[in-house]
Amino acid sequence: MSTLVLAVRDSSTMLRRNLLHARRYPSMTLNLLLSPVMLLLLFVYIFGDVMSAGIGGGGADRSAYVAYLVPGILLLTIGGTTIGSAVSVTMDMTEGIIARFRTMAIHRGSVLIGHVVGSVLQCMMSVLLVGAVAVAIGFRSTEATALEWLLAIGLLTLVSLALTWIAVGMGLSSPNPEAAGNNALPLMILPLLSSAFVPVDAMPGWFQPIAEYQPFSPAIETLRGLLLGTGIGHNGWLAVAWCLALAVLGYFWSTSLFARDPK
């Protein structure tokens, strides 16, 4: 068989392996899903009226704040889900299974490909579940066209891919699963410091550059524009550029770490 056929076959096997692990040990995925769902409910039902009045400059309108909040929560969900990928990779590296894979006649890159594709699928499933909760509490996207929905799904997939490669690199560079979880925490903290909950121009002046010049804010603004029919401006190109840069960085970082001989 050709190298490409072997790579696809072995990557498919590794993908099934990772999906089986996720199905047999769902506690981590559920724990990571709990945070965005709790934040969504907290900000809608506890702070929703106040936040709506503050952002809109008028009366409280919780439904308006739900529409503003959900795109950021979806990106937060992706960031949280990829933490599980970092932990899973570290577990493989420290429990000896990778050493055994190295002795077998399998495509070397299939192990990482299986982790990445499996993580992207889990991210999209997590987004679907959190999105269902958002719809249940009142989120509507009536202004989005079919093309905008496709672009929104494409953006979410691209963000998942980029963050997954970064998470894989964090997992490979971590000595144990606990360290991997801690090292990957910025993937969930950065969305909290973005425009997910309030507009950047409503933040203190000293904090605005932190929220503006990071990958999550343009991705959130782009997703918000696609789902709500508002303007996107330059955020679309910035979001794609950030995703491609992070994906390339994460890919080369991960493959270089994985290619090193074990100590």
TrEMBL record:
Cell compartment(s), UniProt: Cell membrane; Membrane
Domain of life: Bacteria
Transmembrane segments: 25-48, 68-91, 112-137, 149-172, 184-207, 236-259
Family stated for the protein in its record: Belongs to the ABC-2 integral membrane protein family.
Transmembrane helix found in the keyword field: yes
Domain ABC transmembrane type-2: 27-261
Protein's UniProt name: Transport permease protein
InterPro entries for this protein: ABC2_TM, ABC2_TM_bact-type, ABC_2_transport, Nod_factor_ABC_transporter
Entry annotated with the keyword Cell membrane: yes
UniProt KW keywords: Antibiotic resistance, Cell membrane, Membrane, Transmembrane, Transmembrane helix, Transport
Topological type in the membrane: Multi-pass membrane protein
Location, primary (coarse class): membrane
